[in-house]
Amino acid sequence: MSNFEYFSIELDRHNSFYLSGENLKGSIKIKLTEKEKINSIKVYLNGGAYVKWNGTLKGGGGGYATEKYVDSIVTLLSKLDNSDLYLQDKEYNFDFEFLLPHDLPSSFESSIGQIRYFLTAVIEREWMYDKKVKLNLSVKSVLDLNKNPVLRQGYGVCEQKEICCGPCKSDSIVADFSTKKCGFVLGEQVEFKVKIQNRSNRKINHTKVALRQNIVYHADHNKTWITDDIQSVFFQSSIQPLENMAWENGDIQIPLLAQTLTGRIIEITYSLVLSFKASASLSKNIAIPIVVGLIPFN
């Protein structure tokens, strides 16, 4: 039967949510019903990434890898040499504090990979199993757009798309796609412009702009990836042959999602993708890379 009435970790904020670079403060709370002989009381802060997949995914082959981001320890109580240490049958409260590294990536969960952070309090005991309690943390990376001035600049792409070939070849479609900047934060509206010159003899349907997320998982000299259109907006009208279209004030909102991440085994990138489809032809795509961060431009 255990002598511990309770053994828990309590933090200075109830939601266990922290920004990278912040101080994490808390306390270990213990109450015993009988005296307990121990060696030490320690708190561990750990965090890292883990990826694993089998050979049925894109890229072929399987993969497994881990990456460590933080591994810290605080000793709260420890016995001296040639002496015994006891916890009495009463309540204890041991305060602790960790400084989170400023470059921690955000917590992340998927079926293939995870980025997780957690605290573990350990009471080391003689001739008995150690007593442990664990608490998961949520960490948000402080990706400051101001540190990359290039992201303030607009970005434009003008491409000419050929329609079919040989006897069914038609004149091309010219698409001009642009944004005012390339750095954005969660919840922000991304403004864009689209101009399309349909020089072909085909009608253009299904013109849309999508916020595309691409997650790449790296392991064992192999990789796999998942691409997903998070948000999409559509141009309401078709574009007739030899007709021009101007989509002047388009916008799409960035929802609450993972920030851009350039980790060694998990990489998350975003792009704004213009796609359109002419009759009896494949879809055409034009992409603008963007960065999703936490701190907006001043």
Automatic annotation (TrEMBL):
Any one GO BP annotation for this protein: protein transport
Any one GO cellular component localisation term in the record: cytoplasm
Coiled coil (residue ranges): none
Pfam short name (any one): Arrestin_N
Domain Arrestin C-terminal-like: 169-297
Gene3D superfamilies cross-referenced by the UniProt entry: 2.60.40.640
Cross-referenced InterPro entries: Arrestin-like_C (IPR014752), Arrestin-like_N (IPR011021), Arrestin_C-like (IPR011022), Arrestin_domain-protein (IPR050357), Ig_E-set (IPR014756)
Family to which the UniProt record says this protein belongs: Belongs to the arrestin family.
UniProt-recorded name of the protein: Arrestin domain-containing 3-like
Organism: Brachionus plicatilis
Lineage: Eukaryota, Metazoa, Spiralia, Gnathifera, Rotifera
